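ugh ok so i messed up the first submission bc i forgot one of the chains. this is the corrected input, ALL of the components this time, i swear. 1349 residues overall. if the numbers dont match what u have on ur side tell me asap before i send this to the collaborators (the ones from the other lab, u know who)
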Amino acid sequence: MTEKVGVYICHCGTNIAGPVDVAEVARWAKENLKGVALARDYRFMCSSLGQEIIQEDIKNEGLTRVVVAACSPHLHEKTFRSACSKMGLNPYLTQMASIREQVSWVTEDRAAATEKAKMMVAGAVRRVQLQVELQPTEVPVNPNTLVVGGGIAGIQASLELADAGYHVFMVEREPSIGGHMAQFDKTFPTLDCAACILTPKMSDVGLHENIELLSYAEVESVSGYVGSFDVRVRKKARYIIEDACTGCGICIEKCPKKVVDEVFEVGLGYRKAVYRPFPQAVPKFPVIDKETCIYFERGTCKACEKFCPTEAIDFEQTDSYVDLNVGNIIMATGYDLFDCTKIPQYGYGRLANVFTNLEFERLCNAAGPTEGRIVLRDGVTEPKSIGIIHCVGSRDKNYHPYCSAVCCMSALKFGHLAMEKTGAEVYSFYIDMRPLHKNYEEFYDRLLQEGMHFIRGRVAEVTDAARLPGEEGKIIIQAEDTLIGKQRRIPVDMVVLLGALQPRFDAKETGLKFGVSAGLDGWFTERHPKLDPVATMTDGVFIAGTCQGPKDIPDSVTQGAAAAARVQGMIAKGTVLIEPIVASIEEARCSGCRICNNLCPFNAIEYLEDKEVSYINAALCKGCGTCVAACPAQAISGAHFTNDQIFAEMEGLLYDVIGSNGATAKSPQPVLEPA
Amino acid sequence: MRYGYYPGCSLTNAARPYEISTRAIAGELGLAFDEVEDWNCCGATEYMSLNKTAAYALIGRNLALAAQSGMRELVAPCSACYLNLRKTDHYMKKYKPLGKVTNQALAAGGLHYEPGSLVVRHLLDVIVKDVGYDAISAKVTRPLTGLRVAPYYGCLIVRPDFNGGSSEDTEYPTHLDHLMEALGAEVVDFPLKTHCCGGHMTQISADTAYELIRRLLQNAAEYQADLLVTLCPMCQLNLDAYQSQVNRHFGTDFNLPILYFTQMIGLAMGLEPKELAIGQEIVSAASALRKIGTVEEIEETAQARRKRDDKSLPMPRIREG
Amino acid sequence: MARSEDYAPDGFLNEVIEATPGGDTLVTCLQCGTCGGSCPSGADMDDTPRRLFAMINAGMREEVLRSNTPWYCVTCYYCMTRCPKQIPITDLMYTLKRMAVREKLYDDRDAPDWSSSFVGFVESYGRSFEFGLATRYHLTHSPLRKVGVGPMALEMIAKDRMSLRPDKIKGVDQLRAILDTAKSLEGV
Amino acid sequence: MTESDFEPKIVGFLCNWCSYRAADLAGTARMKYEPNVRIIRVMCSGRVDPTFVLKALSLGADGVMLAGCHPGECHYIEQNYKTIRRFKMLKHTLRALGIEEERVRLQWASAGEGALLASAINEMVDQVRKLGPLHWSGNWMDDEGAQEAIQALPSEHAEAMEVPA
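and heres the new structure output, hopefully the right one now
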């Protein structure tokens, strides 16, 4: 086959033309490279004029392939592809050589730079001639959306979509939506009460005609692809018939079994065996906790059943499954709090009056175990002094190297609430103060004025071992006051540990389930850290809120809304193009060895029992090419990255050792050429 | 169970009671120790302050001698020796140039040490893990009932935990606690269990050292400990021999006997105090030990039901491990 | 006392890093003060370790090496295990001691002398010699402090916990050969 | 060719998501590094078939660099773990062929680690420069060891892949 290749060398002003002799590269390409019909250099190829040059040549010179040597394909591949397709040249018949990022900007010597540029152009020219036309496949988008997680981010996303008129399935693991925000008392920096701003949104979700809430439920499995995901949800047995229950709460009242509430009250308060995490819970239906229910333990009791006016109790209930089909998925699975017992020198779990940030939220909360009284573990005594410790498990290579982003502000909030409610002296021990959003610095200033004490120094230890007079019976916080350069011991009545935000204990499995990867620290990875923060590598799956990284309420809400907007875009368009860069199996060559089958993390490869060959579902394939490389029979080929194309590029790049004919002096011709 | 054994200088001098009691209980516990032939000082905390390479070579000689004689596990009862041996083995592996230069030095003495060929362990670790609490409590004939014991680990047995070798927390270890419980003693939750005894400061800046010793004695006293159990010669020396100095310095009247955990094990197994070199401590343990055997009322520990008017908040659960 | 403009950053910092296994982490110091807060003898130090690290960064060579801080290190390793950046602080203290000794930059002689007396016995016998130390070191250092230390020593002897004769190993020559080579390899 | 004026030719396979972006970043940051490495973009380091490496060497490259996302950070979730396994296998093959292991390098570089990639490239170039040009033992076809190694390649390769991730 003879292709007519057009080669275009971009000057990028002097960015390339400075260190690289662009005219020479063009001349050389024209004279030495097979298939090159013409080679030009131009000041700015990406400019409309530059694009027109290419388009003119396609029209007048009948180019069948185009090579642009300019910047990184990550910048302008799309530009040149569409320029060509406008002239009827399939976009996948173009190729770029990154002679700016990989040559002109990183090479000292002009001669060497020019030489390297030539080789890269040769590689592109060779490769492009073997490239073939590819057509993206177009699939319809199911307008229904799955939102996983009913915290503030998930709530925001759901309402945005529902209000726009699209149907949403919201799956929440706990008996009620609301997430961590529902546990909080006030929110910084405005100090409006969390419940006051959250509960209306919660009930909106509960009542919204476009939202189907699946609470006390978890996603079992996900299959399918963007536009059409098949999702199986397991609704855990509530032992309450939701259709019959009026949420009157008599069952809770009558239940004789009281247990420590480890979840909503973080171990500080009690609940019944049949319970609703908190009064404003959505949905209103309670849950019977099988683990602690007397009937499930001993086979007798059923007090709730006796008193239920609508016969809504059903001890025979079992887990049920719901199968959904959705076009897009938004994951808002949130965070877990760091286990503060991992740092014994801070005394949590041993010293009664050391509390965590979440526990302190419950203490402040009027609906909490102490009706909002900030008291010591004895439940009555008000602390006269409180120490707040920052960065517990954060900014610490022994636990989490990252900054948890919200602690500095909660410290300020706690300081204000504590001084307001108890008049206690409050000390904050910080490494760096990071109040970095709108009106946050002002809040810091306010607390300084209100007389909160700030000691710059990471706490070394919290102990009850009195050493100096005045320390007896107190908890002593020992730290270096780094602004003075001296060790200090501050005796206090109460200590609050600002535990780190950490990924959910099961984030990794969840990620695998949805085809979302997580970074080393366990947070879900966005498609691009700056320019694509809520999308993921799996088309149609978006992330919002703290499952992507530590963030506060405003940021979580922003991401929830952003994810919803992205989904609306998909739905509005109605169809989605699936990249043609996928792998496919040539049945004739497939030996049915099935090695490729378990290589694919996206389950795109299935084994066809009848034909005894493996088959790749193009819609599921993400085009990584691992299976292509793994196939011992060379039966799998990866579109746009075929062995031949890569070998050709290789030969071009090694033009100076191989020479033009592709044969090398050093070895007999291709030893391992695929059969 | 046979082990290579590195007593270290202290056990031949100030810590003789540690050596004697260890030997005394070893047989009963089924432990056999082969002493490293012609071992030398580990350099304590001093040698490193003058010469780095020489310090590692000094310790390297012991490792080389032990490995050469076919030992696989090397047991050190002294925490400082334990740390130095373990640290050198670890650093020689982790920092290749250091390992190289150390072996170059050893070569001058016709020796070589391949890092990783020895597992360095502390005596406590061997007794707790290889013998085990159950096996030990099974041998108890004279339970330490009613004796209030403050378990004191000091620093170097738990810190730093090179390559996560020990299963103990660097801040809040529990092996010695559980061991003393196994012997029937009443163990106090000693907050300063891993704090410093003053180390060599007794020699360099007595005032500094006395203050550190005072903290430990005062805290143990506040917890009404009858005696303090240790596993490190330096800790024992500072707390025992310098106790009178501390009293003189601060005008206090602490009278807290400091014994080695090996002596406690021996006592519980019914050995005579003399066999365990009890009596060689400066602060006599005699009065404290009179308690042993006398059966005290076991407290009613059954969880009382929560009273209606009880407003107190539940304590957080600490997950084990 | 050097003036600020005389400080030459880098040079000194790199020296310290070079001489310390794992010392390269020093540059990641957050200045959080966990080390200074944890140090048992921190109260008696001229500078907290954290401050010392800032001074090293600023190239304040003489001030750093004259500081009593390293000599008050009790090697309890609290700073090292608690450091959120996993900086080998205890080893850095050893490094600073070695530098100070070599450049004779220490004001209080006690600590260095104690170390060298100790090492002296180890090098001549292969074992430490407590009685020798007690006598040699204490007789030459502020006898005042030995009020009570004398009686204590006697009691130790009486309790058979301090032998009057040093314990000498067989391979002393071998050991010296090793140590001498080590020193020459380190260039001292 | 004497060592002094020998300039190695190295082929680099960079994954599209991390390492190729690292190369972009090195460029944007104007970090200067040796011009000897010529880069081929693949979607994932998992795409790199060990035969690519042998092919590159047989065509006259003096070394080959594979670069991908850090393990655990793969944009395809876990594919770079497979790369690790393949790379082990590859080294084994190279030994069989009598090729110095230093001629191939597996480098993790995230999109933010332009500097790391640049210094890795410089390191490798120096290394290969020291090794000198790759002298193929004439025609492999004559060399039995090489033959076996090559025949064994696909099956070993398959084994390497069968180990669950």
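quick check: Residues 661-675 of chain A have pLDDT under 50 and may be disordered. that seems consistent at least. The radius of gyration of chain A is 32 Å.
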